[in-house]
Amino acid sequence: MAGLSVPWYAYINHVTTTIANDTFEVPSVIFARSLELYPNRRLSAAALNYELDLLGYQPVNTTPGIGQYRQQGSHYEIYSKGFHFADGHDQATRIELNLNNNRIEHITPALARLEPKVIGHFFNQDFENRRPIALSEIPDTMVMGLQAVEDREFKHHHGVSWSGIMRAAVKNLMAGGIVQGGSTLTQQLVKNKLHYHEQTFLRKLHELLAATLLETKLNKRDILAMYFNEIYWGQNGRVAIHGVVEAAQFYFAKNIQQLTIAEQATLIGLIKGPSWYNPYKHPERAITRRNVVLNSWLETGIIDNKTHQQARNKALQLSQSRQLKGDYDNYIDVVKRQIRDRFSSNELKQNGLRVFTHLDPYIQYRTSQTAQKTDDWLSDQVETAIIVSSSQSGGLLALTGSKNPRSQYNRALLAKRQIGSLIKPFIYLAALETLSDFDLNTELHDGPISIKTPQGPWQPQNWDNKGLGDITAMEALVQSRNQATVDLGVKIGLDKLLKFLNKLGLSIKHNAHPALFLGAIELSPFEVQHLFSLFASRGNTTQINAIISITDNDNKVLSRAIQPRKQNLQIAHIDQINTALNAVTTRGTARRLTTTFDLPKPLFGKTGTTNNGRDSWFSGFDQDHLMTVWVGRDDNQPTPYSGSNGALILWANLFKNL
Predict the structure, then answer these.
(1) Residues 115, 150, 207, 433: which is the catalytic one?
(2) Could you give the CA distance from residue 393 to residue 546 in angstroms, rounded to a whole number?
(3) What is the CA radius of gyration of the chain?
(4) Which terminus of the chain is less hemmed in, N or C, by CB atoms within 10 Å?
(5) What's the whole-model pTM score?
(6) Which of 116, 143, 169 is the last residue of a domain?
(7) Is 421 a catalytic residue?
(8) Same domain, residue pair 134 and 171
(9) 371 within domain boundaries
(10) Minimum mean pLDDT among 325-329, 531-535, 609-613: which range?
């Protein structure tokens, strides 16, 4: 007996010591940007309603409580939930605002913000989602209510309730099967920690001894805190919901302190069987179980009769934000790229960092919707990638790499395609920067030209197979004339142009072909977005950033967005190119934006097309948004689309919806 029991005791003692000293692995959380509300901010009712629904705010017809809002025409009353931002804690706040002509006309208080949407996590291999909380932060009704339902003798036993085991045994014997368990909260915690699933006598012995020993190493409050942070509350796809904080967010989109009595009882009731009582799949079962919990709370004096009746009469009022899953995976690919040099994989999966990004949920939704309608406007043979960023700051607002939301291939980041005429604004900018006697009134020759190469003479053609003779550089850029642009490229010189483009961040080999003058260079849509941010920001940034800041669990800022090195370019030269890019949208290759689509001016942009329509591009911007759209076939076969009748169609429809 000693030979068996001593090693067994030593093993269980080691196990319980490990449990007592265990620290939770907490996945890092990725947040969208927070919606800031202030006078004269541009904001549509559609965007505001989408964001409120996405964050789980419940529409009501009476004065809203925390996590609710009331809309009466253009007037909104919102009761925010509060949030620990990187720059401080915002309390739950009553907000009133009026919208007029897609702007905030009046708001009280003058500056407010809603909490950011969680768009992703860095999970460990178990895909467990949890965020620990101190017992003092959990409502007393839940702490006492858990004991009332699961273990009324918790304060009096030492890990095992022998009277509870006897009661359960008698009831099970009388019922002819297992209808009641005798496990204490401590035993349940041990079972969860050790991942016991099989119902065997040896497993039960392990559990009994481990529970007894654990109570010698932790006090009752520590056990309760560990229980609330460890217990399993359900499943969100392949992600396991652990801990009461994540459960409150998943089912009700609330902080735990903001849960009503009915919501608290629903969560406590779920512990018995998260799948069986899943309120989304089995609402009747969940309500029945919740009411059993409420009856127990009334019986033990945790709540009074009035509270009991009010809670029983409430609907479940579950958050529907889980049904509004955005297409965030492609965006998170960018976050991973921009974070990998600053934090290790283990830090991201275990240390509970908080990554705040620029993602705008409504713009992301509209971007994804636009991509998914590609087949309606173009052909079902082509794919697309769309990127949206802030014109001024370079913050990445939205990104989608496919028209198919289930696609695993992120074309926005990974598809390297020739950019065609998108290169032309940079050719003309290079001329302004390097040629002392050049401006956009300088005449270029738009006619036959032949350049010697190792492969033989290269003779570029215009898209209409015509030459216009001597024309100004402005007209050559606005009308996207190939031969005139090559004439300018020869004046600059290939080596000098390569040096200039490399300074902008492009990595081009020095044995480049003169076809580079016409965009014979392969870039991803994301790289094109970087380039055009130079014009959208008037030289302020050439870096598209997804990340705003990263904080630790204590809200200490660990990292901020990497600031790009500012280009040493003359603003006057950038403004000259922008004048031409504006003319492109009014009388040039993108004039359909202001004629057919009647979009608000001023707009700036450039179309791009490669041989036989293999790639259709449009990159354009206004004072708020820079957007790049690519359209083409994955097999690089020809399409019937140019930049002006392919990518531009998607760009215009997305811009109209924003």
Answers:
(1) 150
(2) 11
(3) 31
(4) N
(5) 0.86
(6) 116
(7) yes
(8) yes
(9) yes
(10) 325-329
